[in-house]
Amino acid sequence: MPEPVFLSGDCVALRPIEEDDLEFLQQHVNDPRVWRAIGRSKPLNRVQERAFFEDVVCSEESIQLLIVAESTPVGTVGLKSIDWPSNRAELGYWIAPDHWRSGYASDAVERVVAYAFDQLGLHRIAARVFAFNEPSRRLLESVGFTQEGVHRDVEFIDGEYQDAYWYGLLEDEWRSETD
Questions:
Q1: What is the 3-state secondary structure (H, E, C) of 21-33?
Q2: Of 50, 55, 80, whose CA–CA distance to 65 is shortest?
Q3: Which of 164, 92, 155, 166 is nearest to 131 (CA)?
Q4: Rounded distance, CA 147 to CA 127, Å?
Q5: What one-character-per-residue DSSP string does the chain give?
Q6: Quick check: 143 and 110 in contact, CB under 8 A?
Q7: Looking at 30-39, 43-52, 79-88, 139-148, which range is the least confident one?
Q8: Which of 31, 40, 43 is nearest to 155 (CA)?
Q9: What's the mean per-residue pLDDT of the chain?
Q10: Using an 8 Å Cβ cutoff, are 118 and 110 in contact?
Q11: Where are the domains of the chain?
Q12: What is the C-alpha to C-alpha distance for residues 147 and 131, in angstroms, rounded to an integer?
């Protein structure tokens, strides 16, 4: 039986991540095309993936959702480092490589951003993207995010230091885009 949908998009459904999803998560987060884009450089075993589930997915400072297309898990999207007093959070997402260029990430990000501003009352959402990840930069810009700065040589990935571009989106900017 499929898990209940939390948010529905045009081409995806977003639902809570459950323990049964850990195998899917571990498999794809260990794919070099995914771990490179999210800035991980070490593999995750089952114990570590379970710790992620317990420490991050089940945390009050995080909302992590599974992206599902036609009953198939295709990635994750979420808000982490939620600072409730300041009404801000950081957006993160990834899509399994077999499902790239399908519109799933855009749909999921748009839904989570709307949820963050409309339901959670957040004022600001930040996102970090590595310089080599041009598709993700374009996605954020298409939703209304503005590049705010660069952290130079912030992560060591594939044998070299990588710059990370920081993006931000304020609630009033997003509302003016959606009106």
A1: HHHHHHHHHCCHH
A2: 80
A3: 164
A4: 9
A5: -PPPPSEE-SS-EEEE--GGGHHHHHHHHTSHHHHHHHT--S---HHHHHHHIIIIIT-TT-EEEEEEETTEEEEEEEEEEEETTTTEEEEEEEE-GGGTTSSHHHHHHHHHHHHHHHTS--SEEEEEEETT-HHHHHHHHHHT-EEEEEEEEEEEETTEEEEEEEEEEEHHHHHHHH-
A6: yes
A7: 43-52
A8: 40
A9: 89
A10: no
A11: 7-178
A12: 11
User: In this structure, are residues 40 and 25 in contact, taking their beta carbons and an 8 Å threshold?
Assistant: no
Q: What is the pLDDT of residues 117-168, one digit of tens each?
A: 999 999 999 999 999 999 999 999 999 999 999 999 999 988 899 999 999 9
Q: Distance between CA 78 and CA 37 in Å, rounded?
A: 16
Residue type, 31: D
Residue identified by tokens 């420490």 is 55
CATH superfamily of this structure's domain 7-178: Gcn5-related N-acetyltransferase (GNAT) (3.40.630.30)
Q: How far does CA 165 lie from the centroid of its chain?
A: 15
Report the amino acid identity of residue 21: D
What's the CA gap between 74 and 154, in Å, rounded?
28
DSSP strand pairing (13-16 vs 72-83): unpaired
